[in-house]
């Protein structure tokens, strides 16, 4: 056969089959080798990938303090960094803010802002002698466990004394629960002067620091683990005196002790004997005195606020201010600004922090109150028009400016933590550059005994607020109520914001500054501390007249 002869089709077909078979076999072997290699390399690749993930995670952790500083400093000023739950709040009332920064009122009009209140025909009137006489034989020991913050607990203490009087019982120094928001474990003894408390009330009721040994078992832990016959946990809000006589007195008579928990707002404001009402006033205004170190720190801050100079941070460098410029020399205004996350979330209002803020506050409402917040059913516009939204730092600043306070006003900021941080209060600071707070007025050493303790810090704010020439609060709440009542009792100037009016004014985005100023001043006549007589169901701690006061 000639090599030049073409192969037959059959021969070619057989060759193709053999070639394809060898190729297929080769591919199978290669695939097996690849799978074997992959199987051997997979753990190595996984370990390498895991190491890379861990390295990136470590890098993120290292960068967190720079990207989100307040994550590691809960009492510091929060700022809108990369991982913030709000967008940096911008002025929501820019036109009004510009007008406020440029507006000037006549000197005679602004001077009236600082004038003390004239006598209003009422004077403090609490009993100085025993009411019914100290009981010869006590019916037993009364324990109360108080939740809430400083001022809710303060009101609870006053009610506890009154309940002990109703029951002819011996009161054990109240136990202060740790509030999930404020997270302060400070005891009664760490806030109030116990000796003064006992001595001031010794003619009214019997008070002991702690239970005698035979009742030492009656503790918070004892009541936390099981149902106990000596615990009263069904006291209704604003219960009557008869309710305590019918439900608590039998427990005292049977066991010699009764523990009431919870005990917040558990005594009525109406249908009580006048002498019992005045006993509550005596506790509130005479028996409850802060411990010496709180008073000393508060007095230090008051002196520095009244000084003509300016205190900068912890350096205490005082700058001399010209008397002609510093119109309010020696006087200061206290602004109670409770604008923390708890308040913002519970209000269900929109504060301009964008979608991220709205989602964060909605989630907070769900976690803390399981979404059961009455305001959630209303729109932001409905809430504001009804005066249900707390004033933002910007809005309270505009209110003060419209009333006549200006950039020479010494302002003390009584606040725990502002939701939104420094960016949230930047407009307020522009309006009132002489604004101070505890940290700007006192050194770290001076604050060491109260730093990180919300109740003690609030006590310092309470003291400074009671000694200010003017007081205003940006939102209703227990501290607002307690200070309004206490300052009314002492006839001190206290501005009550007209929340419904302000809500409507701030909804009007086209309003000019002069119109806003006019509406604010007209809407706040008679709201600078004038006495209002308490109406049925209103709190004796907010409206002390006529229960705690007599006509002069």
Mean pLDDT: 84
Could you tell me the number of beta strands? Answer: 13
Strand content: 5-15%
Radius of gyration: 34 Å
> What is the CATH architecture annotation of one domain?
3-Layer(aba) Sandwich
Spans of at least 5 consecutive residues whose pLDDT stays below 50 are 1-25, 42-48, 58-83, 312-328
How would a crystallographer describe the biggest sheet? 6 strands, parallel
> Which fold name corresponds to the CATH topology of one domain?
Rossmann fold
The CATH C-level name of one domain is Alpha Beta
Count of helix runs:
21
Structural class: alpha/beta
Give the helix level as a range of percent: 40-55%
Separation of the first and last Cα atoms: 144 Å
Q: Shape, please?
A: globular
Membrane topology: Single-pass membrane protein
Pfam family, one: O-FucT
Subcellular location: Membrane
Main location: membrane
Give a written overview of the molecule.
Among the domains are: 12-67; 96-102 and 309-339 and 391-475 and 494-527, no CATH class; 128-287, 3-Layer(aba) Sandwich (Rossmann fold). The chain is built from 21 helices and 13 strands. The longest helix is centred in the first third of the chain and has 59 residues, at 9-67. The chain has helices at 9-67, 94-102, 107-111, 150-167, 188-191, 194-200, 220-224, 241-247, 249-255, 274-287, 292-306, 341-347, 354-369, 380-385, 393-403, 421-431, 438-441, 454-466, 478-489, 499-507, 513-523; strands at 122-124, 141-146, 170-172, 175-176, 206-208, 231-232, 257-260, 333-336, 411-414, 435-436, 470-473, 494-495, 549-551. With 552 residues, it is an alpha/beta fold. Helices cover 45% and strands 8% of the residues. The strands form 3 sheets. Strands 2, 3, 4, 5, 6 and 7 form a 6-stranded parallel beta sheet that branches.
